[in-house]
Amino acid sequence: MGADSQSWHLELSYDQWVALPVSGPRPAARYKHAAALFDEKLYITGGSRNGRYLSDFQVFDLRSLTWSTVKLNIEASDAKTNDGIPAQVFPATSGHSMIKWGKRLLLIAGLSKHTTDRMTVRFIDLESYNCGVVETFGKIPVARSGQSVTLFGSKLIMFGGEDWNRRLLNDVNVLDLETMTWTPVETTQAPPTPRFDHAAALHSERYLFIFGGCSHSVFFSDLYVLDLEAMEWSQPQIQGDIVKSRAGHAGVDVGENWFIVGGGDNRSGALETLVINMSKLVVSVVTSVKERDPLASEGISISSALLGGETFLVTFGGYNGKYYNEVFVMKVKPRDSSQPKILQSPAAAAAAASVTAAYALAKSESLDYGEQEDTNAKVITVDTSQQDTALEVNSIKEEMKALESSLIEVTAETAALKTKIDETNGSYAELSKELHSVQGQLANERSRCAKLEAQISELQKMLESLPSLEKEVQALRSEKSAFEGDMEHGGAAQSQRSGGIWKWVAG
Q1: pLDDT tens digits for 8-43?
Q2: Model-level pTM greater than 0.70?
Q3: How many whole angstroms separate alpha carbon 157 and alpha carbon 168?
């Protein structure tokens, strides 16, 4: 890139990611943050790093290529959380969603140390930088993270996620932004399996697309569509390049083209940047990166910006063994948008007035479409002769998918149990060695005890013989006393006899 940061976007090639030469300090590297782009500025809030939630609010100017940290003002109000306790405004949060609404950014859901049982919505005013809690009404959904939140007119549509008890969700809830009222939505047809860390996009102001995500053991590469008029789910077949299963990816739509970047499956990151044409239901690879590239990260964010009449994709952050804080951009090449394809799904069929009644009665029929073109439009013709067969096939397919999902989870559980068994066997082997060692020490102690017992037995015998020895000693003492008495008497007599002789001699 040239030295002029104001015109950097003029030098870029189409459909190639480029790291921007950011000036000055950068925010801390992170993932699972929330991002929104407005007026050529990228707003970043929250996220996670090394298990710690972040609460900062950062702004990146796409013209000057500089970051700045904004200190938010806590708005003085009596707003409380949905549990009726005083709210800590703008806490450190991860796994939340951020949507621009007017001059405000709305922050929905996410993980935080200050958790309530029900959903909390916060706001940041982009003019005053005041922030606070939005009071909501209605049937407020359970708190969660890893959900998708999509703007649909004056409503937010939230799908899926994971609650605080790690329960996976596939519910649909709508927040009316004019009344701030939550409403749960009842849908028909088979919904996506419960999941989190997926991506969502709105097409033609009618169809909600859901792509990828994961359960606790399975990563998905499937595509689901919710018809927001009929509130019916479908799983249309997509054509084109093979898609890798992924979660933690990010998506942004540019017209009918939905760009997907990043994500992974806990083993490797997704290297391909995808584009899904939501009208034609065709997926293709835009470009690829090398392994361990910041763009092959989970928890990455993506936004779109219009600079000089060109559309640019902007990414930030992510994690794939390392946390990132780079800003990447890609200039989007204009793509053909002619001849949109009719969605091959029950939801699209519900749009045709000729089959509305049939769908209202059956609620699960799958119709085959024949397309007949004229000069202005495509006419949908419906073949109802194989409806029963198609229904049975769809039912079997759904059962097979459910069984495959169950098999994958059981296989994962079996592998986990095998690992525990191996660990137990290893512990048992160590304990056996220790037992043999203790048994050897015990045998040595028993031998020593046997020797001590023999010595004690000999001492006991000696003790038992002491009385007889004492009697012998006593007898010897008596004999000695008698002998000494005899000696004394004999000595006196001899003394008397000797004295007379000496007396005589002296006389």
Answers
A1: 888 899 999 999 999 899 999 999 999 999 999 999
A2: no
A3: 17
Q: What is the DSSP letter of 7?
A: G
Half-sphere exposure of 169 (CA within 13 A, CB side): 22
**234 bridge partner residues:** 225
153 in the same domain as 27: yes
Residue 312, phi then psi, degrees to nearest 5: -125, 140
The CA–CA distances, whole Å, from 429 to 252, 424, 426, 434 equal 55, 9, 5, 9
User: What type of residue sits at position 407?
Assistant: L
For residue 89, give the nearest of 42, 41, 51, 57 by alpha carbon.
57
Per-residue model confidence (pLDDT) at position 446: 80
Number of neighbouring beta carbons within 10 Å of residue 136: 20
Helix (H) / strand (E) containing 477 = helix 387-506
- Domain span holding position 409: 372-507
In CATH, what number is assigned to the domain containing residue 35? 2.120.10.80
For the chain, the domain total comes to 2
Torsion of CA 462, 468, 470, 471, to 10 degrees: 180
Q: Which of 123, 158, 162 is nearest to 144 (CA)?
A: 162
The DSSP H or E segment spanning 104 is strand 104-108
d(C-alpha 408, C-alpha 432), whole Å: 36
> Does 158 share its domain with 304?
yes
| Helix, strand, coil shares, percent, the chain, to 5 | 30, 35, 40
Rounded to 5 degrees, what angle do the CA atoms 167, 172, 175 make?
115
Helix (H, G, I), strand (E, B) or coil at 158: strand
- Tell me whether residue 199 is in a domain: yes
Helices within 265-369 (DSSP H only): 346-349, 356-362
Look at residue 481 in the predicted model and tell me its pLDDT.
82
- The set of residues, in sequence order, having a beta carbon less than 8 Å from that of 190 and lying 6+ positions away, is 233, 235, 398
CA pair distance 258, 254, nearest whole angstrom: 6
